[in-house]
Amino acid sequence: MSTRRMRAAVLREQGRALPYSETRPLDVTEVDLDGPGPGEVLVRIAAAGLCHSDLSAIAGTRARVVPVVAGHEAAGVVEEVGPGVVRFRAGDHVVMVFVASWGHCGYCVAGRPNLCESSWEARAKGTLPGGARRLSQDGIPLHHNSGISAFAEYAVTSETSLVAIGEDVPLVDAAVLGCAVVTGVGAVLHTADVAAGETVAVSGLGGVGLSAVLGAVLAGASTIVALDVTPSKLRLALELGATHAVDAREPGAVDAVREASGGGVHHAFEMAGAAASMETCYAATRRGGEVVVAALPDPGATFAVPLAAHASDERVVRGCYMGSCVPARDIPMLVGLYRAGRLPIERLRSRTIALDEINEGFDRLREGEAVREVVTFGEGVR
Q1: Which of these, 191, 161, 197, 201, lies nearest to 179 by C-alpha position?
Q2: Domain ranges in the chain?
Q3: Residue 303 · residue 278 · CB < 8 Å
Q4: Rounded distance between C-alpha atoms, residue 201 and residue 204, angstroms
Q5: Is residue 339 pLDDT above 90, yes or no?
Q6: Over the stretch 123-176, which tens digit does the pLDDT of each residue have?
Q7: Mean of the pLDDT values across residues 258-273?
Q8: The whole model's pTM is what?
Q9: Exposed e or buried b for every residue in 14-39, given b needs 16+ CB within 10 A?
Q10: Are strands 199-203 and 244-247 parallel, antiparallel or unpaired?
Q11: How far apart are alpha carbons 206 and 191 in whole angstroms?
Q12: CA 268 → CA 194, 276, 291, distances in Å?
C-alpha cells in the first residue's frame, strides 16, 4: 500500500484560548496518508467548508479524540479506489457525507441511513468505519474526523461516505452540500415536511440556517421569518427569499414572528444551538406547531417544556440529524435544483481561503462574521 506526504490541519488539543489566530489550535503541517484499503477510496480534496461542528470540537464543547485531522464537509475528485470498490472510479467528482451508512442496520433498512449506527463507534475511536487508520505523522497514528478528515489535500474514506456528482458542478460550491445544505434543506423538506402555504421561522442564520431558508422557499412556505443577531445575515436571508427579518436580541422578537405569521408559525427551525434560540422558537409556534432542532448545542444544554401547555397545544419538538436525508437520493436532487437555478448555494460562501488561513477563518465563524468559509486546494478549483 503506497503512502503519500500531504499538508493537513491537525487538531492536537481542544479548548485553546481565543483568538485562534494566536493560539493556533489547528496545526497546518505535513502528514502521511496510506492508500485505500478494501471498500475505501482516495479522494483529492478540492474544497472543504468550515462548520460550527468543527468549531465546537476546537473549543472543546464536543469531545473528540486527538490528535485528529479535522474537517467533515468537502468535495473532491477520486484518485484511486481500493479492492472491492465498484461504485466509483478515478476521475469521479464526489461530495463527502459525515455518516457512512452501510445499509444493513435497522435504520438503513427503514430508509433512515442518517441514523446508521455503523459509523458511531468508528467516530468515537477516530477510525474509518472498517476500523483502520490511514493517517500518521512520524510513524505515530493520527485520528480521522467523522471518517473524512477533510482539512487536507487528500483523504481516504469509506465508499459509503461518498456521493458522485456531475463534473459540471463547481467543487467549491459542492463542498457545502454534504453538511450545511443537506441538513438545512432536509430539515424543511424531510424532517418537517413543510407544505406549500405553511409558515416558517428559522433562528440562527449560519450555513445550515440559511439553507433552511432556501428549503422553505423550495417548499412554497407563505411566510419565512429569519432570526439572527447579525444584520448582514438578516439581509442575506431576505435576499435568499425570507419574507421577514427579525433581530433575535429584540425583546419583541417572539411577538414579531407571531404577528408576521398570523398568530405563530407552523414550523420553527432552531439552527443556532442556543437555549435562548430554542425558547424563541417554541414560543413563536402556533397551536399544533412544531420546533425542529438541527443545531448541535453544548451537550449540557437543556430546555424546559411547559408540560400542560405542551399537551393542550399539541406542539411537537423534533430532532433533525443530517436533514433526515438519504444521501444517495438527496444530494443528486439538490444538485439538480442547483443546476436549475433554484438552489443558489454559492450565496452561502462568505469567502475562499487557503489552508494556512484556517485558524483565522474559525475566528470569523465564531464571531458571526462568516456564513461559510471554504478552504480551497490548488489553483483554479472549480
Answers
A1: 161
A2: 3-178+325-376, 193-319
A3: yes
A4: 10
A5: yes
A6: 899 999 989 999 999 999 999 999 999 999 999 999 999 999 999 999 999 999
A7: 98
A8: 0.96
A9: bebeeebeeeebbebeebbbbbbbeb
A10: unpaired
A11: 19
A12: 11, 14, 5
Task: Specify whether the CB–CB gap between 248 and 273 falls below 8 A.
Answer: no
Q: Phi, psi (5° rounding) for residue 15?
A: 80, 25
Query: What share of the chain in percent tops pLDDT 70?
Result: 99
Over range 61-77, report the average pLDDT: 96
Using CA atoms, how far apart are residues 128 and 124, in angstroms rounded to an integer?
10
3-178+325-376 matches 193-319 in fold: no
Quick one: 106 exposed, middle or buried, by C-beta within 10 A (0-12, 13-18, 19+)?
exposed
Three cell numbers written together for 110: 427503514
pLDDT surpasses 90 at 101: no
DSSP state, 220?
Answer: T
36-50 mean pLDDT? 98
Q: Are 348 and 207 in contact (CB under 8 A)?
A: yes
**pLDDT score, position 379:** 59
CB 253 within 8 A of CB 227: yes
Q: What is the Cα 207 distance to its own chain's centre?
A: 8
User: Coil, strand or helix: which one is 260?
Assistant: helix
Please give the average per-residue pLDDT across 57-80, as a whole number: 96
**Mean pLDDT over all residues of the chain?**
95
* Homologous superfamily in CATH for domain 193-319: NAD(P)-binding Rossmann-like Domain (3.40.50.720)
d(CA 48, CA 150): 6
Q: Which residue stretches of the chain are H helix?
A: 20-23, 52-59, 106-109, 120-125, 171-174, 182-186, 207-219, 231-239, 253-260, 275-284, 307-312, 327-339, 358-366
Identify the CATH homologous superfamily for domain 3-178+325-376. Answer: Medium-chain alcohol dehydrogenases, catalytic domain (3.90.180.10)
